[in-house]
Amino acid sequence: MVEALRITGVSKRLGRNPALDGAELTVRSGEVYGLLGPNGAGKTTLMKSIAGLLRPDSGEITVFGRPLSEDARREIGTLIEGPGVWPHLNAREHIRVHARLRGVPEEWGWQALRSLGMADLAKRRVSAYSLGMRWRLGIALALLARPRLLVLDEPTNGLDPVGVRDIRELLRNLASAGVTTLVSSHQLDQVARTCDRVGVLVAGSMAYDGPLDGLAVDGDLETGFFNLVTRTDAGVR
Questions:
Q1: The model scores a pTM over 0.85
Q2: Residues whose CB is less than 8 angstroms from the CB of residue 111 and which lie 6 or more positions away in sequence, other chains included
Q3: Which of 107, 175, 189 minimizes the C-alpha distance to 140?
Q4: Tens digit of pLDDT for each residue in 67-91?
Q5: Element (H or E) spanning 106, and its range?
Q6: How far apart are CA 63 and CA 70, in angstroms?
Q7: Where do the structural domains in the chain lie, given as residue ranges?
């Protein structure tokens, strides 16, 4: 199977602290891959490195077999550390601005909005949105340029159960259409219902990279996750 993303030996220091320490993982084309780990494990740093917002100190990142570059990043849609939206603009204006910046038709943005149930809110200013609505708009903007790879940092943050279900179904539908997603989450039950494979970061290194049933204990992903994190963290100390 074609590799959508490969992380090989990626390390990054932020100040004196090693945020990533030889991290490695592989995401296959067309799958939903869950990136797990405790707070401070390096998940956001890794996602920022993939998006080109941070430059690793060492290691390699390839996207669909190509080294990460400005051209390769056109294949990636990202939502990291919250939706970067402007409160004084509405969704229609966000679509217009982002479509021009990326050189794509505005209709692509409208299709993304409709897929997230946001079309009826297009004329309302973001300042009147709930947190969940802002996240939906952020995901729509990540989808606007029809990327082959999505990188989403806690995309169900602030969503009600219906919204969480909708995002889960969206990611599965995108996978069926060949779009690959790397998604970080602390909601292990949703990871178990959404993702094909998972990786677990602990102290900047990959403690696990593989199928869900290889991490779960007696079918329980939460137990397997906590056992792995506790065991690995103890080993680090």
A1: yes
A2: none
A3: 107
A4: 888 788 888 999 998 888 899 999 9
A5: helix 106-115
A6: 11
A7: 3-75+148-236, 82-146
